[in-house]
């Protein structure tokens, strides 16, 4: 018997153990267990359907609050075609329907749920936003005032907020810091698509989809009274509002508003002017937004005490959904939208990372959704930032789903074959159209849970956390329903009972939490708008704000639940109360709920505004340095629709040198086609501008000042590039040499160069034949109208001021690839300058120089890293006597992820034999290699594919093998890119390099211009960088998250990123070249931008930084440091990206003992020591 008992006990133990290990982070509470039987049922009728009410699938919201003050959070659901419902929390995830008893039944199309104690009596009230297709009288918003006994009285008219303007959501906040709560009302009228598709915006308040602002004008008849002040307050811009976020975005003590708008309408950022008015500053703060912005949330996602945003769109994750939703890449429409003053918008979620503001009067944001991995969650509605696992990092939960997949292009092409309605009637023109609509599949997917990894990346933990139940989810909210210290979730769904998730974090991990319930002055008793900062022993600071309206149509808990990880004690909590009062609580226990009453805590003085001591200052205007690059209009996509980016927008470059012999640095900046290049000559610390005559015919790329003809002054070499002209015959791509008369006057020497037939990029110079003059390498960027045929690159030997093509001395160099940058550098320390190349769809390439002949190095680790390389810069970062490199790449803030296992590929050939190249560019989506181009783009290029793949679904279900199987691939070229990180290349000798990705901030955008300098004067080399690329295909969208980069080196090859608030190095444009320039002995940097203003930055404090000019014939210097290390610095004539800098040795007087200068043979030329 005891044996049977033993086996029984073992069996029970096994079951218990199995149950424990099967517990997920979240547990779905079924409707029969929770008692929540509400269903937001949407039924299509002959008289009510998508074609006459296209917003009928937008769903409802949810609000959570403790309506009966029993310590448990209750739930309110809004209903569209059904009544809204209130469920009272009875504990242990049991809820009771109290709707009818409470008097909360509705018969309107209710959208948003706003929970607020509107009359400040200590009981939470309900404000409902009403929309729909009904007449105005039936569309009035509802205010249900809590009577304190679980009954409610509807009083919207008495309060003055019974608005009937197709409301989406309301947020209550103190807009004027007068101590009471005002109301912003989001609006989305039931307008026809013809109105919505217009490419202009009404900004005078007359648009039916213009939001409203209601001011709390005081107490009347015992309760607050509201008045519509929209026009007076400047709330006059129409939109199609779906999301609303309230936060103090610029930290001036006044609450601002971020409004997300559907369709083409721009998102709006209403910044509070502190006088009762608001100004839209979205374009100043954000470079791009979501195209069809849905819900929005705001929080500090990386614990830097700065508020970030996420907005949602409808980009699918799967290739099937991507390709059936998108037909073409309409660049012309995109440009038209921009010309009509709309912002750049792209169909994907946008994660706006707050970078700080430097010396600006507002913060700048980088859109990093693609880098973070949260940009494609299909037809999405509600984002919620919250720490769902209590590890101290805010995760993000995203709801999605749509009842009918009306974006399916097979359906769209069918329904667009004739007008939807019979003219003059409300009847559908096709009897079976409604039937086909009803037969359309739903976008029925699991919602997304992204776990914050703490490094600006998120992991999709939907399955691992037990949340992979498919639904049609809309509004969502979080609250701690069981008071166990972690955040649970609830969401309103269409045609199904709501999803209710119990969070099991406290059961599964050892993370701690803190809960804070704030109580402030009457008028804003719940402290809406308050800010919290938790300070912990590990120097972590967590920022949280009390703003309950979040996500989409919903209100989350007022109680702040803050995860703190494994920390067992909180050093202090700082509270910024609404209105600006600061208080502090010290030494708090974890796993505790604190009720904090204003005025009962240690007061803190308001932080005084202090002038910041930035590393650099922007001084362009002070120098009279006036230059703006003006781009010509060009569109390669008309002839080459499969490109990932245009090839005519890669300038301008910079050349630096003393062109008039006065001992100061002057600058040349190239012009775009139809714009002349410009000389900016320095005199007494100011600059004068003079144009280069007869240069407007060309698209200037790289440029160099050097003594071409050995007459003692600096001449000018300019590379002609671009792609807007499709032929070579008229000389648009001929490079040019301009000779200097010694006074800074330049004349074109038409005989100096051979005929060059290439669209070039860079030019770099060295005396590779060691005859005493400088020779050049010129990189070929692109073959116009024939991408990706390898353009010509040239090795040009200088013979008395006349150049000869000697490219044969470097076998394979002529057609090495699409070169973007080059550098002459002695990578192997043999005193011969070797040639390093960076380019697109290729690895970094080294040509070893042996006595003026070149051989491509094949046994280098660099061959493993094929990328989209833009730039290369050399320096001895670890002071070991050889040159290491910084290589700029595409970055990782891109949809086009690449790895060795799953690279980007390009299959290129004239497949249809029509004398034009057909590049089929592919990526991996969910482990399958597929074309990037949608059906319309690839089928338009190769029309035989329409026959093989007659529908969007057949196209979407095909892999690249299926496409290639129907094409003649004989002679097809295959390109590959498996690495897109901008990187540090540590020189290990013998052609081997350790490739290390630069810090995450260097991956936000393509890295172009790079300069190396000890900017913080600690004796270690640092990196300044700029880069973006705006002119891309329009599905994934442009690269604009680069804002200027400063990486501080540790002297060992490691780097850390400095914030804009420390550096003030802000280059928020389509940045390209970056050069070091001496301006009155002050170290400065010039940064150019495509179609933008050129900026000049100067080091704020250069006390210890000194320089010595390289002399003619000196190839490198050895810098001896006091701690025994020796740093090598090469003398570059052109480096980075299209950049030439002052030829100087930079050194720190506190760190250096002497400097030795060496010539091209490795012989010591001179020595400089500190006592000289």
Characterise the protein shown here:
The chain is mainly beta. It folds into four domains: 26-42 and 56-436 and 443-513, YVTN repeat-like/Quinoprotein amine dehydrogenase (Methylamine Dehydrogenase, Chain H, 7 Propeller); 514-547 and 556-603, Immunoglobulin-like (Sandwich); 616-898 and 978-1169, YVTN repeat-like/Quinoprotein amine dehydrogenase (Methylamine Dehydrogenase, Chain H), CATH 2.130.10; 904-976, no CATH class. It starts with a helix and ends with a strand. It is globular. Strand 31 (488-493) and strand 32 form a beta hairpin. Mean pLDDT is 93; it is low at 1-20. The strands form 22 sheets. The chain has a five-stranded antiparallel sheet, with no helix packed on it. Strands 56, 57, 58, 59 and 60 form a five-stranded antiparallel sheet that branches. The longest helix is centred in the first third of the chain and has 20 residues, at 2-21.
Provide a compact summary of the structure.
With 1172 residues, the protein is mainly β. It has 4 domains: 26-42 and 56-436 and 443-513, YVTN repeat-like/Quinoprotein amine dehydrogenase (Methylamine Dehydrogenase, Chain H), CATH 2.130.10.10; 514-547 and 556-603, Immunoglobulin-like (Sandwich), CATH 2.60.40; 616-898 and 978-1169, YVTN repeat-like/Quinoprotein amine dehydrogenase (Methylamine Dehydrogenase, Chain H), CATH 2.130.10; 904-976, no CATH class. The chain contains 18 helices and 81 strands.
